[in-house]
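User: Could you go from structure to sequence for me? I need the amino acid at each position, not a summary. Structure tokens:
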């Protein structure tokens, strides 16, 4: 139940950020996702570790996305600050994405090649969805841009998962939401 709730919180944040940006109200998406992050932290037993992991993911994501912007691979609408930085809603999404690593994506902890492979395929698909929503443009030739994007993400995400394994060692139950742990369930 904890993993399902974690997945649903992430998906709601993703939809809020993407939908808010697509509708021209990125601040609304950021506000909604921030509330979901606060709820996640309130439910999670290891808040300090989660905050550190979110900070690392936000910084890593900002660097990766900035590199892709500087290389002309991505162009966000609206642009982020200074033109080379991604918009704030993207950085918030990276932070929220980190919340899935010790929870619903924990099964990838000791499978870095699988994590890289899934990311290599999944990240471009996500950005194509963002392009369809009008929040990002992917440079032509699109296949080359998507290969570069997927490659950078396929390195970054396993590194973030590795960070999560260091911050969240122990059994998966140690990271279950308080509302979903065995001690809080009615029998």
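Assistant: Here is the amino acid at each position, in order:
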């Amino acid at each position: 139940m904890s993993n399902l709730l974690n997945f649903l919180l992430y998906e709601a944040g993703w939809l809020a950020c993407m939908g808010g940006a697509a509708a021209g109200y990125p601040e609304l998406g950021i506000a909604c996702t921030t509330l979901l992050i606060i709820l996640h932290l309130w439910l999670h037993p290891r808040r300090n570790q989660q905050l550190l992991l979110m900070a690392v993911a936000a910084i890593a994501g900002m660097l990766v996305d900035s590199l892709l912007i500087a290389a002309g691979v991505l162009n966000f609408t609206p642009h982020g600050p200074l033109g080379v930085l991604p918009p704030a809603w993207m950085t918030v999404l990276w932070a929220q994405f980190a919340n899935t690593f010790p929870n619903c994506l924990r099964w990838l902890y000791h499978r870095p090649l699988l994590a890289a492979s899934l990311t290599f395929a999944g990240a471009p698909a996500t950005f194509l969805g963002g392009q369809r929503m009008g929040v990002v443009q992917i440079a032509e030739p699109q296949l080359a841009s998507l290969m570069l994007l997927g490659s950078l993400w396929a390195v970054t995400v396993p590194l973030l998962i590795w960070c999560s394994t260091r911050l969240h060692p122990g059994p998966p139950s140690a990271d279950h939401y308080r509302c979903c742990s065995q001690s809080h369930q009615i029998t």
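One structural detail worth keeping in mind: Residues 2-184 form one domain.
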